[in-house]
Amino acid sequence: MSVRLSRRSALFVSGGVAALAARPSWGQAANDDVSLAEAVDAYVAKCRAAWPDQPALGVAVVREGQTVLARGYGVKAQDRPGAADEHTLFAIASNTKNVTAAALAILVDEGKVKWDAPVKTYLPDFRLSAPYIGEHVTVRDAISHRAGFGLGAGDLLFWPNSDRTRAEVVAQAAFVPIEDGFRARYHYCNLMFVVAGAVIEAVSGRSWEDFIQTRILDRVGMSETVPLARLADPAKSALPHGRVGPPLRYQGDMTRIAQSIVEVWNWDSAAAAGGICTTPTDWAKWMAVRLNEGVLPDGSRLFSEDAAREMWKPNIIVGSSAGPTAELPNRSIASTYAMGFQVQDYRGERLISHGGGSPGGISATVLIPGRKTGFCIFSNAEESFLLRALRSGIADIVMGKVDVDWIADSKRLEAEGTEKSLAAAAEIDAKQRAGAAPSMPLDAYVGTWRDPWYGDIVISRRGEGLWLDFTHTPALKGPLEPYDGETFRTRFPDRREEDAFVTFAIQTAKPATATLKGVSPDIDFSYDYQDLRLTRV
Question: Which residue, 225, 228, 212, is CA-closest to 280?
């Protein structure tokens, strides 16, 4: 389990814990658009001062259908000139999911799709490893994270950048293990959103990106937005940044990790789950449409009022608690997932939200329907505690209930997490130094190893050691080192990626099967090494 805030936590607005603080100077309720813009702008400045390594931010605020604030802060790349502004492109990753849900809503309005029809209605060849679920999982299930897959299951089909096609990802879903009961519990699942994208394509006769472009982006007037990262002009983009060690990922100095967004985030094969890149200016337009339940600025509708309400209807419980207390004024009684959005109570009001995380970028969208107000935060780095401070602090400013110092609290948690992560990294290295030697010669582990859903992983000799190759993932290739007995560890030269432990099982005097798990305690959940079951071919 991670000891730090991770991409997983960046996906949702925190309903978490913070110490009560003296009311900051920007804590008065902002009752007009100018005051709101000034209060948010001042708060962003305070957050940037607390996290000086953050290269760029994009922030937009809308209220009553109008853009109150749309601004870029900082620089698009830390090692070159170029200021970020309101027209700078950011990868928004899983914030794409609510656009995919809206695309399905359009098809529902046209009578071409039904929320509660089985996916097989539209994809007759669709199968899952649990046959009953494959037969009965519906469109609603697909975009509600309740099919039964574990967290991030199947993500290695497209994360990191993979050579798999969209059709191959959907086909391989038939072999990804399902670890829970159907509709039993919430487990965040990108894979089923890829399936939802395939439904859009099958029903409309268009590619997902063409449907999104012509039926949504063009109609909303989002002329700066692109549905695929490979279409994002690097000169107009906030380039990805992160910490790549030493000793582990998410530690060390901040550095630019790519020359373009697509270099580390080519999700063509999983676009429906996270493909969109957009700007603060454009996403403000989208938030206004969502807050107005599908009504466009010209008075026409993108989708019906019924569809708008259906997309915000809770379908599965994410978490629950006893509710707010004097010490925890923002704690939710219930956090739920609807379709492409999380829905929760927050300080006595309904809050609609989602987050997104990609290599070198995280983002958040927060809508407060009762106030007809929403805001977004885009980042070109992975500073999740900064995102926590921004999204919770801006929500409180909008509500005029600023009684928590989110900056101080997030810095405290960040420091605690860093201390634990560094200690964990030292322990990992110490165990390797003290580890037992493998029981067999290195040549015994050489061969092709196959997982039913990922495909082949090849282990070969290179020099005096072993070399491991995830055959569908160009970045996951590197030395495989002895760690402790039958457990080895990767040492990928591309330090943007996460290493894995590989543990072999010996049968009839030779390695016959292997399992994997991530090395780092802070590993991103989309490196779902733990779902791999390798058998020697």
Answer: 225
392 membership: H or E segment, kind and range:
helix 384-399
Here the tokens at position 143 are 């975009």
CB 392 within 8 Å of CB 386: no
Task: Sort strands 277-278 and 316-320 into parallel, antiparallel or unpaired.
Answer: unpaired
Give just the sign of the alpha carbon dihedral 183, 270, 241, 355: negative
What is the distance in angstroms between the CA of the first residue and the CA of the last residue of the chain?
32
Task: For residues 164 and 125, give the distance between their C-alpha atoms in angstroms, rounded to a whole number.
Answer: 18
Q: How many CA atoms lie within 13 A of 438 on its CB side?
A: 24
Rounded-to-integer distance, Cα 68 and Cα 36, Å: 8
Model pTM greater than 0.85? yes
Rounded to the nearest angstrom, the gap between the alpha carbon of residue 92 and the centroid of all alpha carbons in its chain is: 8
Along the 537 residues of the chain, how does pLDDT read in single tens digits? 233 445 555 665 444 445 444 444 444 456 699 999 999 999 999 999 999 999 999 999 999 999 999 999 999 999 999 999 999 999 999 999 999 999 999 999 999 999 999 999 999 999 999 999 999 999 999 999 999 999 999 999 999 999 999 999 999 999 999 999 999 999 999 999 999 999 999 999 999 999 999 999 999 999 999 999 999 999 999 999 999 999 999 999 999 999 999 999 999 999 999 999 999 999 999 999 999 999 999 999 999 999 999 999 999 999 999 999 887 888 999 999 999 999 999 999 999 999 999 999 999 999 999 999 999 999 999 999 999 999 999 999 999 998 899 999 999 999 999 999 999 999 999 999 999 999 999 999 999 999 999 999 999 999 999 999 999 999 999 999 999 999 999 999 999 999 999 999 999 899 999 999 999 999 999 999 999 999 999
Integer-rounded Cα Rg, in Å, for the chain is 23
Closest CA relative to residue 453, chosen from 170, 122, 244, 204: 170
**H-helix or E-strand containing 533?**
strand 533-536
Alpha-carbon span 111 to 336, nearest angstrom: 27
CA–CA separation, 58 and 60 (whole Å)? 7
Residue 457 to residues 174, 269, 467, 482, Cα–Cα distance (Å): 19, 20, 10, 17
Q: What are the b/e assignments for 220-241, b being 16+ CB within 10 Å?
A: bebebbbbbbbbbeeebbbbbb
Which candidate, 486, 393, 494, 295, places its Cα nearest to that of 42?
Answer: 393
Could you say which DSSP state residue 340 is in? S
Write out the two tokens for 149: 């897959």
3-state helix/strand/coil string of 424-451: HHHHHHHHHHHCCCCCCCHHHHCEEEEE
512 close to 506: Cβ distance less than 8 angstroms: yes
Chain CA centroid to CA 103, Å: 20
Closest CA to 376 of 359, 397, 355: 355
